[in-house]
Amino acid sequence: MGVSPITSHVLDAARGAPAQGVPVTISYAPTSQAAAASQSTVIARSVTNDDGRCPSLLEDTHVLKPGVYTVRFDTKTYFALHGEKSFYPFVDVTFEIDQPAPHYHIPLNLAPFSYTTYRGS
């Protein structure tokens, strides 16, 4: 079995553990102008597993096209599962691909009042 061309890993920095149960959505727009005008199309939905990962966000055969991708993490739902409020109801990580590579990993370090992300490997 291959790997989704876009994967994610969410860590709960406040708990020092993987963030299980975070709904994750990927959207695609062909240009940054289309993305800015909210003309993106949802291409995948998933929920983080017990290791805080979404290993099969997209089918491993999915071919990425040049354009703008947004990975949305529904942090409000996650924190509500733990009886907490979140300052950020969701986190959008938007990135542009000119020449698609075989894999993009989008990690998120999460806390109720903070988050960080980077391009993983």
From TrEMBL:
InterPro entries: Hydroxyisourate_hydrolase, Thyroxine_BS, Transthyretin/HIU_hydrolase, Transthyretin/HIU_hydrolase_d, Transthyretin/HIU_hydrolase_sf, Transthyretin_CS
Domain Transthyretin/hydroxyisourate hydrolase per the UniProt entry, residue ranges: 1-120
Entry GO MF terms: hydroxyisourate hydrolase activity
EC number assigned by the record: 3.5.2.17
Stored SUPFAM superfamilies: Transthyretin (synonym: prealbumin)
GO biological process, one term: purine nucleobase metabolic process
Highest taxon of source: Eukaryota
Pfam families: Transthyretin (PF00576)
Keyword set, alphabetical order: Hydrolase, Purine metabolism
Residues involved in substrate binding: 9, 53, 118
Reactions this protein catalyses: 5-hydroxyisourate + H2O = 5-hydroxy-2-oxo-4-ureido-2,5-dihydro-1H-imidazole-5-carboxylate + H(+)
Purpose of the protein: Catalyzes the hydrolysis of 5-hydroxyisourate (HIU) to 2-oxo-4-hydroxy-4-carboxy-5-ureidoimidazoline (OHCU).
Family in the record: Belongs to the transthyretin family. 5-hydroxyisourate hydrolase subfamily.
Assembly behavior: Homotetramer.
Stated name of the protein: 5-hydroxyisourate hydrolase
Organism: Coemansia guatemalensis
